[in-house]
């Protein structure tokens, strides 16, 4: 759709017939995409953006680089939410190619497989599974009963996804108006899962706002785990029961998180870090191969000493 049509949808007059193919972040946008700037802490990313156009407030209009068209508005984030609906794919495709199912794959009764989906060889898809449109699943993967994989998601080979898990549900994204009404930000990305990944029962992995929520190969995820939109789990991470990751968390290689531990969003955890059960991570951890516990977070040994001293006070 043209930039003129997009601007008109938020009641802004703009004479530009540039074709816009999608929405993206400041850093990842290309010359055919629209981006936005709301928070001043991302001003450093503005000067290097390659976006065709940007939603921006009047205060920051002068900082928009040449070659990027500024769409000046009072509330860029709110307007992004309104525009995101224009780029949302169909919930379900009624037309398209029939799914392709590889040799040796067993599909049990009461399974739905959407248009354009491709399932590899020697997979097992159990009853009640829903596999949406344009989903790709590799070879030798097992999908247990009542697993839901939303449209456009990708699952690798040799994976196991246990009953009731949902892959690709919408991330929790809303912008609010001045009178408090919440406007949905449509989650137009997907989830990509590597090879040799096991995901326990009744877990949820949210699709990205833009691009992908990424689970790399060799990851192990327990039951009742929630992974927010745009998270990245590098190779070999382990998440045990009831772990929660807020959006845009990055876990580097072989991070281990104990039961009921959690992260705030937009942070990164160094490789080979261990977070003990119920630990709360509120800022990035940069030094690898350390153990942490508690909330607020302490190094594990310090946390044990603290608990010992508290116990003595109670005697």
Automatic annotation (TrEMBL):
Catalytic site: 229 (proton acceptor)
Q: Main EC class of this protein?
A: transferase
Q: List, in alphabetical order, the GO biological process terms annotated in this UniProt record.
A: lipid A biosynthetic process
Gene Ontology CC annotation, any one: membrane
Q: Which domain of life is it from?
A: Bacteria
Matches recorded under SUPFAM superfamilies: Trimeric LpxA-like enzymes
**Which pathway, metabolic or otherwise, does it act in?**
Bacterial outer membrane biogenesis; LPS lipid A biosynthesis
Keyword line: Acyltransferase, Lipid A biosynthesis, Lipid biosynthesis, Lipid metabolism, Repeat, Transferase
In its UniProt record, a GO molecular function of this protein is: N-acyltransferase activity
Q: Which reaction does it catalyse?
A: a UDP-3-O-[(3R)-3-hydroxyacyl]-alpha-D-glucosamine + a (3R)-hydroxyacyl-[ACP] = a UDP-2-N,3-O-bis[(3R)-3-hydroxyacyl]-alpha-D-glucosamine + holo-[ACP] + H(+)
**Gene3D superfamilies given in the database record:** Hexapeptide repeat proteins (2.160.10.10), MurE/MurF, N-terminal domain (3.40.1390.10)
Q: Which InterPro entries match?
A: Hexapep, LpxD, Trimer_LpxA-like_sf, UDP_GlcNAc_AcTrfase_non-rep
Question: Is Nucleotide-binding there in the keyword field?
Answer: no
| Tagged with keyword Transcription regulation | no
Enzyme Commission number(s) of this protein: 2.3.1.191
- NCBIfam families per the UniProt record, alphabetical: lipid_A_lpxD, PRK00892.1
Per the record, the similarity remark reads: Belongs to the transferase hexapeptide repeat family. LpxD subfamily.
Assembly and partners are described as: Homotrimer.
Functional description taken from the UniProt entry: Catalyzes the N-acylation of UDP-3-O-acylglucosamine using 3-hydroxyacyl-ACP as the acyl donor. Is involved in the biosynthesis of lipid A, a phosphorylated glycolipid that anchors the lipopolysaccharide to the outer membrane of the cell.
Question: Under what name is this protein listed?
Answer: UDP-3-O-acylglucosamine N-acyltransferase
* Species per Swiss-Prot/TrEMBL record: Malaciobacter pacificus
């Amino acid at each position: 759709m043209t930039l003129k049509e997009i601007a008109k949808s938020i009641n802004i007059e703009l004479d530009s017939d540039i074709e816009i193919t999608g929405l993206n972040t400041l850093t990842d946008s290309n010359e055919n995409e629209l981006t936005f700037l709301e928070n001043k802490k991302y001003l450093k990313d503005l000067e290097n953006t390659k976006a065709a156009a940007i939603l921006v407030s009047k205060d920051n209009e002068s900082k928009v680089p040449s070659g990027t068209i500024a769409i000046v508005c009072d509330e860029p984030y709110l307007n992004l939410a309104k525009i995101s609906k224009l780029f949302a794919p169909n919930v379900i495709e009624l037309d398209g190619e029939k799914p392709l199912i590889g040799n040796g794959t067993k599909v049990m009764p009461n399974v739905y497989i959407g248009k354009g989906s491709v399932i590899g060889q020697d997979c097992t898809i159990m009853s009640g599974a829903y596999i949406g449109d344009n989903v790709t699943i590799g070879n030798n993967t097992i999908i247990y009963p009542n697993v839901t994989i939303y449209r456009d998601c990708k699952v690798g080979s040799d994976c196991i996804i246990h009953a009731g898990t949902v892959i690709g549900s919408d991330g929790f994204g809303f912008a609010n108006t001045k009178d408090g009404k919440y406007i949905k930000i449509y989650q137009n990305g997907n989830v990509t899962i590597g090879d040799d990944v096991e995901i326990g029962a009744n877990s949820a992995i949210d699709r990205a706002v833009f691009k992908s929520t990424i689970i790399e190969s060799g990851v192990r995820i327990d039951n009742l785990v929630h992974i927010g939109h745009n998270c990245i789990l590098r190779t070999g991470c382990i998440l045990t029961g009831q772990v929660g990751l807020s959006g845009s968390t990055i876990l580097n290689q072989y991070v281990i998180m104990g039961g009921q531990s959690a992260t705030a969003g937009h942070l990164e955890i160094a490789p080979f870090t261990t977070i003990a059960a119920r630990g709360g991570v509120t800022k990035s951890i940069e030094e690898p191969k350390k153990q942490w516990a508690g909330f607020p977070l302490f190094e594990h040994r310090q946390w044990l000493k603290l608990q010992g001293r508290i116990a003595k006070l109670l005697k």
